[in-house]
Amino acid sequence: MARSANQKAKILVLRQILLSRTDEDHPMSMAQLIAALEERGIQAERKSVYSDLEALSWMGLDVQCRRGRQGGWFIGERPFQLAELKLLVDAVQSCRFITAKKSGQLIGKLEALVSAHQARQLQRQVYVSGRVKAPNEHVYYNIDKLHTAIHNDHMVTFRYFIQNPRKERVFRRDGGRYRVSPLALLWDNENYYLAGLDEDLDQVRHYRVDKMADIALTGAPRRIPEGFDPAGYGRRHFGMFTGRPAQVTLVCRDELAGVVLDRFGQDAMLVPREDGHFSVSVDVVVSPQFWGWIFALGEGVRVAAPQWAVAEYRRCLQQALEACGKEENL
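and the corresponding structure tokens:
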């Protein structure tokens, strides 16, 4: 048989055919493989295809052959199992900061890791109650820049903004650039935060990544405070809002043990009491968000110490009651 013009690419085309068209449930016979090559303008003999299949297997591709009437050649083990890719697809679709457009692009790339038959199983829709997707993709690229800065030990600069009632950006520090040594990216309440050393304030602060604009890597080396612990910082700065750091003692009903451990980790020491309660001392940043979490647990938890925290919680509750009274008089 005369060699076709695309003969040099035959083994690569054969590899692509196997990856895209076959799996354990969809093998291809030798005749089908030869026909698929001919569709690409490549003439092939059975002997040469057998040789290419052996070469692909030798190179690490899991080429399998099943005998029998419904048998044929197919790709067995792949870098990702189908169940793993389904999990990744669900995570991409559920993630708030990934736009709908970018979600579709990422899922399309995940589909390319399996056969066309299996890819149809990845075209699934995850519905998350109240989920609002991000309107633009700048968060996606911000995260990449910050990871790069941390990996390369470089300082970054950026502008930081909030939004006014007209949904317009209002930049902090009169639009000036923040100079920060990035320390860690933290995930809290479906948002990414950068924990970093503010070079102007000489303090470790945190910033919502989706509120950062015009991030630039300076090339200057970053500074890492001695003893900085990303996990501990995330636990203390409850809800990623500023407040007064303190060790707060809580008295909780026994049935809330799982809730407390989920929030503060398995290292939290729960001290049993004789009245169906336990006490626990936790390091937190006392803030309205912390009080909101306490309030959501109702009568199942109370603040026991320190006294200034007890008084502050009572004050917050009183202010909430007074605000409700004002609403009734409007």
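(Above: one complete record from the training split.) The chain has eleven helices and twelve strands.
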